[in-house]
Write a structure and sequence with these properties.
Layout lengths: L5 E3 L2 E5 L6 H17 L4 E6 L5 H13 L4 E7 L2 H10 L4 E5 L8 E7 L8 H13 L12 E3 L3 H10 L6 H7 L2 E5 L9 H7 L3 E5 L19 H10 L3 E5 L6 E4 L9 H13 L20 E5 L4 H9 L3 E5 L3 H11 L3 E4 L3 E3 L9 H15 L3 H6 L5 E8 L5 H10 L4 E3 L4 E5 L2 E7 L5 E8 L2 H15 L2
Parallel strand pairs: 3-4, 3-5, 4-7, 8-9, 8-10, 12-13, 12-14
Antiparallel strand pairs: 1-2, 2-6, 5-6, 10-11, 14-15, 16-20, 17-18, 18-19, 19-20
Length: 466
């Protein structure tokens, strides 16, 4: 793994032309196709975001898949959750999504999806990587795979969101919300305006073009949402929605034009489900936590305490999982959770599918606004408040000695070592972990005040500089 080619069991990402090339994409696509075919399902769904390198890599991936006798179902430019749902719809053996998510414009990536619609992890991902490294066996002239297009994947996705028993579509439509929207010229332009219009909203939007020329850093964090904030103020919108290029993350701007932070996306979605439930109980996915009792909410180790507070206020049980959508998804499945996600704006509603889904997040937030009759700022103000501070540093070769020194420095902390090192106390925590998408170490701390969170970060960073 180079400084810019990041390889994991669920795929890889890198800088286009430097270390992510059509040859590499074709070989790994072929490996995924062989893996799917050996399981008896020689069918792979292919989708991508709007990045300028997408058409090139889509052609390379298609060739790789066809070269091992696999049929390709091409959904074109579409949100990541749309592709995941299409894998389930077609009973495909796998899915391949070409997207670098929130990374800058010079990056792209491959994301491998299993037949259950969840990103590959563990043994399955290792098998695909080993096939790619060994060179996947190719078919002859008489076994070349076919290509079929699926132009209805996005419409099916939106139909399924609007049919969710948890969403009171009539109540949302009755409010006739004015909504501001920023799709950062990614795949969201194919999906988000149509969803909002079907929910009876008046949409004021920017960056709907699906050309991949991001007008700002594509991660939907507060410092990148200035244009959306101004649009909310100018249009008198009830809420502003921003998505990342592949539409699995959702960020909010309140009615005053203030970005509220991505952790509140999941916190408010949890409140929507727990405080304003549908009169029709949703079906529960099988899992050890699905036999009754309090509803379960799952989030990762770096998710804000606002989500944990929202769960407890709603009478739920909160469970943490290691960082990474695949880890959270499997914990949701195993726990039989009602809802879950990540503090980066990723909402997972297993009633639809076990993957981060910005359209589902939008529907749940509007359901909460309609049901509560309160504004976004009022909903946020009704919860305990914390301050999160994030930092990063270059990653060394061996982090274990640093973790050991940090545990000695904080002997009174509750320790979690499932994903790096998380140290927690009442009302504050710090998480130190190697990034899965960049060659860095991430520091995330949360406390009632910014000063207290920064102090935790400062102490941890000192251990990495000595």
């Amino acid at each position: 793994m180079s400084d810019t080619l990041m390889i994991s069991v669920s795929g890889m990402r890198g800088i286009v032309g430097k270390d992510l090339t059509p040859e590499l994409v074709a070989r790994h696509a072929a490996a995924l196709g062989v893996w799917a075919a050996r399981a008896g399902r020689p069918l792979v769904v292919l989708g991508r975001d709007a990045r300028t390198s997408g058409p090139m890599f889509a052609r390379a991936a298609t060739a790789g898949l066809m070269s091992v006798g696999v049929t390709v179902i091409d959904v074109g430019i579409a949100p990541t959750p749309t592709v995941q749902l299409a894998v389930e719809h077609h009973h495909a053996g796998a899915g391949l999504i070409l997207t670098a998510s929130h990374n800058p414009i010079e990056w792209n990536a491959l994301k491998f999806v299993g037949p259950d619609g969840i990103f590959l992890d563990g043994a399955d991902g290792i098998q695909v990587r080993e096939l790619a490294e060994a060179g996947p066996p190719r078919t002859g002239w008489d076994g070349v795979g076919a290509v079929r297009e699926d132009p209805d994947a996005i419409t099916r996705h939106l139909d399924q969101v609007l049919a969710l028993p948890l969403i009171d579509v009539a109540a949302i439509r009755a409010r006739r919300f004015v909504v501001a929207l920023d799709c950062v010229r990614g795949a969201g332009g194919t999906t988000m305006p149509a969803l909002l219009e079907r929910l009876g909203c008046t949409v004021r939007a920017i960056n709907l073009e699906t050309d991949g020329h991001f007008p700002r850093p594509p991660e939907p964090v507060p410092e990148n949402l200035g244009d959306l904030s101004r649009l909310v103020q100018e249009s008198g919108a009830a809420v502003g929605f921003a998505v990342d290029p592949d539409v699995d993350r959702l960020a909010l701007v309140d009615q005053r034009g203030e970005p509220i932070g991505e952790d509140y996306t999941l916190a408010l979605a949890v409140r929507s489900v727990l405080e304003f439930p549908s009169p029709v109980p949703p079906p529960r996915r099988a899992g050890r936590g699905s036999g009754g009792g309090e509803p379960v909410v799952v989030a990762n180790l770096s998710t804000s305490l606002v989500v944990e507070d929202a769960t407890r206020l709603g009478g739920g049980r909160f469970v943490r999982a290691p960082v990474g959508e695949a880890n959270v998804a499997r914990a949701i499945r195993d726990e039989g959770a009602l809802i879950g996600g990540e503090g980066n704006g990723g909402v997972i509603l297993p009633q639809l599918h076990i993957g981060r889904d910005a359209p589902v997040g939008v529907a749940l937030i509007l359901h909460l606004l309609a049901g509560s009759g309160r504004s976004v700022s009022e909903l946020v103000g009704g919860q305990p408040t914390y301050r999160i501070v994030k930092a990063k540093a270059p990653r060394g070769n061996d982090l274990a000695p640093v973790y050991k020194r940090l545990r000695t420095r904080f002997p009174d902390a509750v320790v979690d070592t499932r994903d790096g090192l998380r140290l927690a106390w009442d009302g504050r925590w710090v998480h130190v972990r190697p990034s899965g998408t960049e060659p860095i170490v991430r520091f995330i701390a949360e406390a009632p005040t910014r000063e207290a969170a920064e102090e935790l970060i400062t102490v941890c960073r000192e251990f990495f500089s000595t």
